[in-house]
Amino acid sequence: MKPTSRAPRKPVDPDKLMSDQTYLNCVFDGMILTRKDLENCTFTGCSFTNANLTDARLNGSVLRDCNLSNARVAGCNLFSTAFAGCKMVGLDFREGITLTATTFKDCTLDYAIFRGVSLEKMAFERCSLVEVDLSLTKLKQASFVNCDLTQADIQEAEFFQTDLRGANLTGWNLKQHDLRGTVITPAQFEMLATKLGISIMEYSGA
Q1: pLDDT tens across 133-154, in order?
Q2: d(CA 128, CA 69)
């Protein structure tokens, strides 16, 4: 996550937070922001480490280069929220979070938990999702283009037109996982096939 400004981060009075505002290099670490209406805001270079965002409304907001490590996001409304370059390691997205039309670009989501969550039509681009829990998720038309999905837990995930092109699928196994409904590149298919002992060779004819 690259800093966007040389200006020092500054603490903010949580009682003065409101929707439709721009916040630059602000510190919300450890703050109680439950049920806050933060719709259509732009947060750039802000830190939410250990913040409690339970039931907060962030729909339509943009978060760039923000740190949400160990934040509590249960019940958050993230409808049409855009995350770019954010650090979101280990976040738990299982508890009543609205993720419709949410996008993640260049984010670090290692060890995040999406177990049982619908990620239908969600877009993840160039994100790190190492050891992410995608078990039991609904991934219809979801996109993970150029993401790192190393050792992701995909047990019983439902794929349909799920775009995995360019993604790192290290640890995925055709023998253990049902990948029907995914879209991958020929190079990815060859990598997965090799794990089954299948050799792919050109046929020149008789």
Answers
A1: 999 999 999 999 999 999 999 9
A2: 14
